Amino acid sequence: MTNGAQSLMKTLVDAGIEVCFSNPGTSEMHFVSALDDEPKMRAVLGLFEGVVTGAADGYARMADKPAVTLLHLGCGLGNGLANLHNARKGKVPVVNIVGDHATYHVKYDAQLQSDIETVARNVSPGFCRTATSTETLGQDVAEAIAAARAKPGQVTTLILPADVSWGEGGVAVEPLSPPTPEAADEATLEAIATAVSSGQKTAILLGGHALREPTILAAAKIAAHKGVTLLAETFPTRMERGAGLPYIERIAYLAELAMVQLSDIKNLILVDAKAPVSFFAYPDKKSYLVPDSCQVHTLAAPDQDALASLNKLVTAVGADRAQPKLQPKKQPVSPVGKLTAEKVCKAVGHLLPDNAILIDEGITSTLMLAAMTAGAPRHDLLTLTGGAIGQGLPNAVGAAIACPERPVYALIGDGTAMYTIQALWTMAREQLNVTSIIFNNAAYSVLNIELDRVGAKDSGDKAKSQLDLTGPPINFAEIAHSMGVHGVRVQTAEDMVKALEYAQSQPGPHLIEAIIPESLNKTKRKILPWLLRSMPSLPLSVSKALKKKLAP
Amino acid sequence: MTNGAQSLMKTLVDAGIEVCFSNPGTSEMHFVSALDDEPKMRAVLGLFEGVVTGAADGYARMADKPAVTLLHLGCGLGNGLANLHNARKGKVPVVNIVGDHATYHVKYDAQLQSDIETVARNVSPGFCRTATSTETLGQDVAEAIAAARAKPGQVTTLILPADVSWGEGGVAVEPLSPPTPEAADEATLEAIATAVSSGQKTAILLGGHALREPTILAAAKIAAHKGVTLLAETFPTRMERGAGLPYIERIAYLAELAMVQLSDIKNLILVDAKAPVSFFAYPDKKSYLVPDSCQVHTLAAPDQDALASLNKLVTAVGADRAQPKLQPKKQPVSPVGKLTAEKVCKAVGHLLPDNAILIDEGITSTLMLAAMTAGAPRHDLLTLTGGAIGQGLPNAVGAAIACPERPVYALIGDGTAMYTIQALWTMAREQLNVTSIIFNNAAYSVLNIELDRVGAKDSGDKAKSQLDLTGPPINFAEIAHSMGVHGVRVQTAEDMVKALEYAQSQPGPHLIEAIIPESLNKTKRKILPWLLRSMPSLPLSVSKALKKKLAP
C-alpha cells in the first residue's frame, strides 16, 4: 500500500524535484518518514522557516526548477512568508507543502489551528489549494508543480492535512506539461522595430529571465546596430554578467537617480520587465519614473518567450550580423588602508573567481559592487527581488546546493543578516561553499537615508535609536563560530583581502565580518551628499547630468 | 498642524499605551519621527519582527494592557505572525500598526507591495482594518485599542498607508470604553451548583484570565468544601502559582496522559477554558479528550466575568467560609552530578526567588518544571499558548519591560531558541533582568516522540536527520556573547546552580546553556518508556492508574 505522503514524494521526484528544504513538525511526520523511500530526494533542514523558503528561492534561481519546501501549519508558513514574497516578486518557482491538522481535528480549534489559506494567498495568489483526499493528492501536487513551473514562474502552496498524508491509497501522478510561451506578435514587432529605427533615444529594459546570456546577447546586437541603450531592472532575480558579456546598467534604487537615467529616453522597450516605479512613495515625488514624453512598448511580457521575441526583433531591425559590444576583463587593484564599504566591494571585485555566484543584499553598503565587479570573471548576480530583507544568507544556501561546484559570495548588511542568521547553521551542516560577507556598520543605514527622504521632521533621540544597532554591537564572527562556520572580523582592506584569499583556499562555509563606518553623517542624515558620493557607480554621462541637477 | 502619525501616537498614549515594540521600515518613518513627540511612549527595537510581536505578547500578559507593535508591510507582519498567533490563542491584547505604501502607490505593484489584509486576517480575524484618511485615523486606532482590550482580549491590526501617516489634519481620539463582561446567569449557576453538590466526581477547569489569585482562591474554596478537583488548561497564558496559593494540576500535553487525568470525571466545569482536545490528531486516537460519560458545563466563557461567576458559585454551594488548601513552601534540594533536564528544573526550583516570572518553552525538557516549582516562592508562569515555537525569549523581553522589578527566567529548548534568537540583543540593549536557560540536547526531541506517536513507520537516516541538531552543535553561550549578553555553558548540576546564583547576583541579562542528554533513546524512539519516566510530574493517583494502563 502507498500512503499519501509516499505518493506525494514519488510525484515530486518523477517531476524532477530533487531537493526538499524543510522545517517539519508533528503534522508532517509521514512526509518526513517518506523521505527515506526516495533516494533521489535530498532533504535539507533549516532551523527557521525563513531559511527554508529563502533557500528554495535561491535554489530555483540557479537550478531553473523548483525545490519543495516542507512547512508546519500556518505559523511555519508565516515564518517563511517574507522570503516567499521575495520569490513571488522574482517570479521564482517554489512548491510549498504546508502540513495541517487532520481534517476531522480542525473543528476542535487546537493550539496550532489557524486559517492557513488566508496566509498562503499572500504569496500564492495563483495556486493555493488544500488537499482533500489521499487518492487525489498526487494530482494536486502534479498541478502545483506545473503551475509553479509555467512561465513566468510562481510560488504555489499545497496544504496537506495529516490524515490525507497518512491515509492509504495514494496514487503518484506523472508530471504535467506546462504551456509553451509565445513570442511577440507581428504588429508589436513592427511597432517596436519602427521605434528602434526612429533615431529617437531608445532603451531596452531587460528583466526576469531576460538577463541570461542568450537574451542579453540578442539585445546587445540591437544596441550595437541601432545605438539603443541597454538597461536592467533594479533588482534582478538572476543576471549573468562580467567579462565577455555585454555590460548592462541597472536602473538605480533611488528614484532621484533612476529619473536621471531615464530622463531623455523617448522609447522604452520592456522585455520581461515592468516600467520602472519608485520603491516607496515619497511626499511630493512621483511614483512612476518614466517621463511623460517617453513611450513604453512591451516586446515580451513575463509569460511570453523573451528570447524568441528579441531574436525576431534582431532580424526585423537588420541586426543579425551585428557584433555585440562585450565587457573586457578588468578587475580593480587590491584595496589598502582603513576598511570602507567601497573597499570591501573592491576586494570582492579584485578576487572574484570564475563562475561565481554573487548575492547582493548589502543595501547601502554594496552601492559600488556593480562597478567593482563589472569586468570581473563571468558570474551570476542574485538580488533582493521583493525588498523583504533576510533573503541573502538563505539564498546562498539554496544557490550552493543547486551549484555545488560554484563558489557563492553573499554580501549582506548587518541589519539584514540578523533576520535569517540561522542560515549559517545549514551552511555548516551541508558544508556549503559559501563566503558570507557581513557589512557591520551598526545601523539600519538605509533608514537613516529614508528618514530624510520621506520628509519626516528632524528626528529626536528615540527616532534615531530605532535605526541604530550600536548598543550592543553585534559580533558576527562569533555568531558564525557558534554555528560551526569559520568566522573572522576584519578592519583593514589588507585583512579583507587576506580573509577572502583564505576563504578561497579552504572548502566549506566562511564568514567575513567587515567593520565599516556608517554611510551617512549621523548629525546631518541628508540625502544630497550621499547621492553625490554614490555617483561613481553610474556612467559618466549620468553622473554629470546629476551633478548639474542636484548641486546646491 | 498635526500629521496622522502624531494623532495616532497621541491616541495611543491617551489610552494608556506606553510601549511600542518596533522594527520599522521606510513606510513607518513618520511614526518613528512622532515617537519623540510623546515622552510617555517607550520605543523598543527588535532586530526581527518575531521578537517584536512576542515581546508585545509577553508585555501584555504581565501589564494587563496592550503594547503597540510597529511592523513594515506584509513581510514584516509575516515575520511576526507566529508570535501573534500565540497571542491570539492566549487571548492576549496586542495592537499592530502595519505600515503600508501610500494609497496612490499601491497600483504600481512595487517590490514590497502585497495583500497585507489577507495575512492580517489569520491573527486578527476580529479587527483588521486599513486606515483610509488622516482625519479618521485617530478613530481607527481608538477602535483598534478598544477591540484589543475588550474581554477576552485579542490581536487587532491597523494597516497604515504612508500618506495617511504623513498627511496633515490628524485628530487624536479619547479612549473608548470596552463593554463590561457579564457573570453567569442564574439557570447556569443552578445547574452547575447541582452538579458540584451531586457527589459525582467533578472538576473545575480554569484557563485564560481565571488563573490569577482571586479566581484560583474562589475555585479552591469550592474544592475545599465540595471535594472537586481543580485543573488548569495545558498552556496557560499566565498562571499565578507557588507557595501560599492553591496547587492546581495542569492538563497534560500528551493526550495519553490527559485522558488518564480526565478518565473518571463526571462533571467538568469550564471557567474561561475550553474542553480539552488533543494538541495534534493521531491515527486511531481521539481528538476530543473528555470521556463520553462526562458532562461539560460552562460557568464562564472567555468573554464573561470569570471571577464574579465563580464567586456566585461559591455562595450557591455554601462555600463562602471554606478555607482553600494552600501550597506550603517546599523547594527541592540542590541537584548534584551529571546534568539532565530534570536537574535543570530542580536547580530552578531550588533557587527561584520571590515574585519571579517563569517562562516555560522547554518543550520536552521542562516536563518536571511544574513539580519542581510547585512549592517555590510565588511566581507567574507564562507558556506557549499557540504552539508556535520561538515565543519564550521574546516573551521574556516583554515581561521584563512590563515588570522591571521582577526577575524573569526563560526556560527554552534549543530548537525553539533558534527561532527568535535575536531577542538576546534587545535584552542586552535594554539591560533586562532576564535569565535565559537553554536546554541544549541537540535535537527536536518532541518530534522524535511524535514520529512514533503518529505511527510513521520505522524511520531511516534522512527522516532522523530532520530531527537532529547535532551537526554542527550550536554554542548558545557564544551566541549570547555575540549579542552582548553574559553567557555560560554548564554540564554539571553543580555548575548549573552556580550559574543561576551568579545570574541572580548581577543585574542585566544572562544566558545559561545547559548541556543535557537527549530525552529519547535514539535507537528506540518509543513513547512508552518516556511516558513512564514522565510520571513523577503527575499526582500519585494519576501515575498509578497510568502505570496500570500502559505497562506492557
UniProtKB/TrEMBL annotation, chains A, B:
Identify the residues that the record assigns to the Thiamine pyrophosphate enzyme N-terminal TPP-binding domain, covering every copy: 3-113
MF terms in GO: acetolactate synthase activity; flavin adenine dinucleotide binding; thiamine pyrophosphate binding
Q: Would the keyword NAD turn up in this protein's UniProt record?
A: no
User: The Thiamine pyrophosphate enzyme TPP-binding domain covers which part of the protein?
Assistant: 373-513
Q: Name one GO biological process term.
A: small molecule metabolic process
Question: Pfam families given for it?
Answer: TPP_enzyme_C (PF02775), TPP_enzyme_N (PF02776)
UniProt xrefs under SUPFAM superfamilies: Thiamin diphosphate-binding fold (THDP-binding)
Does this entry carry the keyword Ribosomal protein?
no
**Keywords, in A-Z order:** Thiamine pyrophosphate
Q: Write down the InterPro entries for this protein, in alphabetical order.
A: THDP-binding (IPR029061), Thiamin_PyroP_enz_TPP-bd_dom (IPR012001), TPP_enz (IPR045229), TPP_enzyme_TPP-bd (IPR011766)
Q: Which domain of life is it from?
A: Bacteria
As for family, the record states: Belongs to the TPP enzyme family.
> Per its record, how is this protein called by name?
Acetolactate synthase I/II/III large subunit
